[in-house]
Write a structure and sequence with these properties.
The protein has five helices and twelve strands. It is globular and about 55 Å long.
Length: 201
């Protein structure tokens, strides 16, 4: 028997009825896979090789590794991933989106149940359309950041017919990073052009 109120964090299947309340996986195989994934750096190399990293406060104020104000439009305040990850300033990391390349992020708010791991149907459809690309849980614990590539010069908020919204960012903004990979997504950036077109038409 399986329970439909909770899902395995690795494979996404329903958890067994006998699973303990704190269990994150449905089987020994999935538990081992989760453990191994946690030991690896989940962040895509396509992000970590770029010197566009900052620190952030608990209220998402951008900071330099030297604990000074940072700006998403001033490269002098950015650092390498190695420097930013080694810094203890603030509460976490952030990655700056810039018009020098086509790295983009789709921000899906309030779509993930942090207790059960279940995605809202509208968000699950977007993740499915995005395909094999890096997705991580946002700092709030109930949202997702879908990373990929597309030509997005101006960020926008896309209001969906059901009242939910998706934000698309491509430049002049930083995104708070957690390293909390969603499910078994890969550490690569896929082309999200078709997904964004579908959302905007």
């Amino acid at each position: 028997m399986m329970r439909a109120d909770r899902v395995c964090e690795w494979c996404g299947d329903d958890m067994p009825l006998a699973a303990r309340s704190h269990a994150r996986s449905c089987s020994t195989r999935c538990r081992v896979a989760l453990h191994r994934a946690a030991k690896k750096n989940a962040l895509p190399e396509e992000l970590t090789i770029r010197d566009r990293w900052i620190r952030r406060s608990s209220t998402k104020v951008p900071l330099t590794v030297g604990d000074m104000p940072a700006s998403s439009t001033d490269p002098r305040t950015w650092s390498s991933y190695k420097s930013a990850a080694a810094s203890t300033v603030g509460a976490g990391l952030g990655f700056v989106l810039s018009d020098v390349d086509d790295v983009v992020c789709l921000d899906l708010d309030h779509c993930l149940n942090p207790l059960t791991g279940r995605l809202a149907p509208w968000a699950a459809a977007i993740v499915r359309d995005a395909g094999a690309t890096y997705v991580e849980v946002s700092p709030s614990g109930d949202g997702l950041h879908i990373w990929g590539r597309a030509d997005v010069r101006h960020g926008r908020r896309i209001r969906r017919p059901d009242g939910t919204a998706v934000e698309v960012y491509g430049t002049g903004r930083y995104i708070a990073m957690t390293g909390r990979r969603h499910g078994s997504c890969p550490s690569i950036l896929a082309d999200l052009s078709a997904v964004i077109t579908k959302l905007t038409t």
